[in-house]
Structure formats: structure tokens, C-alpha cells
Amino acid sequence: FFFSGSNALRMSSGIQIKKKTAAQKSETCSPEPQPKPSDKLNPKTIDPFGAYSRPPSAFAATYARGGIPCRLVHGSVKHKLQWECLPETVPFDPLLITLAEGLRETKHPYTFVSKEGFKELLLVEDATEKAIPLLPRLVPVLKATLAHADDEVFGRGLDALVQLSAVVGPSLNDHLKLLLTNLLRRLMEKKFREKVTVALQKLEQYGGKVS
């Protein structure tokens, strides 16, 4: 039930292909001219010559140079994402990890793009097969998000964790012990007690008992 209507979402989310490139003619859409995956996540490699205008984060810099193949579209009632190419053609490695890193952003539009991008990427038909191999790298990123002092960042991380659990199921179980300390700490806070309790119930539903 968690991802009901995913096909309708993909069909109505305003997906547009701006222009055909050599990369888009193949099965995989690449938002950038094939950089090394580590380049997208390593702030030291973003712009060695731009020290005077250093970007605030690796995610913001990746977004600015076109490394995130979706953009925020302002609506009169609700904002949405516009993908430059079909999400099904975007490599999960490293985009899913990059979007997870962006969950720790606190500025607009990065907060919206990272949250919605992570969610919509997990809605593609073969998301399970694509996401499972990335769990050893994704879980530490989500752990850092859940440990963030900002309440909204924690909330985005919690939502992302539940979304991921719904997609990968029991494959996440072995990694949950790395996250439980952060979840239980927030469970002790009255304002998050209900939200964390519901999240733990869903984690159990999708992957078995959390223990």
C-alpha cells in the first residue's frame, strides 16, 4: 500500500525530455559527461579552482552543475519535480546515494529536490534490484541524516528509510542495527514518538521484526 499509484505518479509527474543526447539514445541516461561516481560525492573534486566561491555542500554543487537530472517546478498549489530524462533510465549509482546525501540539506530547493527525487527514483519498476546492492553505502548516509540535529532533516531521513524499506524488504534487516540508536533516541522525544513508532512498525512489516 505504501507505493500505491506509482504508475499514475510517473505518468502525471510532468516528465519531459528536453533534448536527445548521445547518452539518452542508449538505455541509460547520464546527466553529466561520465564523471567517476566518487566525484559526485567528494567535495574535494567539485571545483578545485573555485575556492573563492566554494559551494555550501557537495549536493548543492552537483545540483548546480547539472548532476541531478531533475528540477523543481513551482506550481500554484503544489511543487513537483521535472525529470530531464525518464527516471527508469537514470543510474541508481550514484544518484540514489547523492539524493540521500541531499536529505541533510536545509536550504530550498535542495530540501525538496532531494526528498522528492529519492522517493520518485524508488518508484521505478526495477528499483528493488537497483537499490539492494547500494545498501552498504546508503545506510551510513541515512544514519547521518537520522543523527542530524535539525528536526526537519531527521523527518526526511525517517521518511526515506521507510520508503527504502518498502522497496528492498528483508534485505535491509542486517543494516538496521546501525540505525536503531538514532531512532530510539528520537523515540524518547514526545514530538517524534508517534512518527518513530509508526516508522518502526512499517520497518517490521516490510522486513520482519526490528531487534
How would you briefly describe this protein structure?
The protein is mainly α. The chain has twelve helices and two strands, in the order ααααββαααααααα. It is globular and about 40 Å long.
Can you walk me through this structure?
There is one protein chain. Helices cover 53% and strands 4% of the residues. It has 211 residues and is mainly alpha-helical. β1 (70-73) and β2 (80-83) form a beta hairpin. The radius of gyration is 17 Å and the shape is globular.
The total of beta strands comes to 2
Helix share, percent = 40-55%
Kindly estimate the percentage of residues that lie in beta strands according to DSSP.
Answer: under 5%
Question: Strand order within the widest sheet?
Answer: 1-2
Measured on Cα atoms, how large is the radius of gyration? 17 Å
How many helices does DSSP assign?
Answer: 12
Output the helix-strand order.
Answer: HHHHEEHHHHHHHH
Mean pLDDT across every amino acid position = 80
Largest sheet report: 2 strands, antiparallel
Low-confidence runs: 1-26, 33-55
Shape: globular
Head-to-tail CA distance between termini: 24 Å
Region (Disordered): 15-45
Organism: Menura novaehollandiae
Protein name: PACRL protein
InterPro entries: ARM-like (IPR011989), ARM-type_fold (IPR016024), Parkin_co-regulated_protein (IPR019399)
SSE order and pairing:
Layout (H helix, E strand, L loop, with lengths): L5 H7 L9 H4 L11 H5 L16 H7 L5 E4 L6 E4 L8 H11 L7 H12 L5 H5 L3 H12 L4 H18 L4 H4 L3 H8 L2 H18 L4
Helix pairs in contact: 5-6, 5-8, 8-9, 9-12, 11-12
